[in-house]
Q: What sequence folds into this?
């Protein structure tokens, strides 16, 4: 009986760990912030431009000193077919606004989700990657130092 209880406790603890929030930083976080931020209605045009330049390899961008860029996405859900390998799609939700992406743009987000540690899931010829409550912060001043810092994202498992 003690073994059954211990096993059940272990399974419950493992499930709880799987449902915990995750954090990522560095290049993957910068890429995810830039890709998602491009479509966010809350990210200002100057912030989108700065994120785009940073993601394109320009470490020094014109941006107000001491300011950070925040990208918040309620949910991201991407899928890729492993049968029709040309098919990629993502849906990003920003409050009431939903953005549908396909093709190369969707693949970039899908691949970046996998890069930052979002676990894939699969069913019937489709691979899924999804996250909720994505919250990324990019500090252009810190990125400009070229020391590996300046971008961090937190996310939760899909709801």
A:
């Amino acid at each position: 009986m003690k073994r059954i209880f211990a096993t059940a406790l272990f399974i419950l603890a493992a499930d709880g760990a799987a449902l915990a929030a995750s954090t990522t930083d560095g290049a993957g976080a910068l890429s995810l912030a830039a890709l998602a931020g491009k479509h966010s209605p809350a990210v200002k045009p100057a912030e989108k431009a700065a994120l785009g330049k940073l993601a394109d390899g320009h470490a020094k961008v014109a941006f107000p000193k001491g300011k950070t860029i925040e990208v918040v996405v309620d949910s991201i859900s991407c899928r890729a077919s492993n049968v029709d390998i040309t098919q990629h799609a993502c849906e990003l939700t920003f409050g009431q606004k939903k953005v549908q992406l396909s093709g190369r743009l969707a693949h970039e987000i899908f691949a970046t989700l996998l890069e930052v540690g979002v676990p894939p899931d699969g069913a019937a010829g489709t691979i899924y990657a999804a996250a909720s409550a994505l919250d990324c912060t990019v500090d252009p001043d810190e990125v400009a130092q070229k020391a590996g810092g300046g971008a961090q994202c937190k996310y939760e498992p899909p709801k």
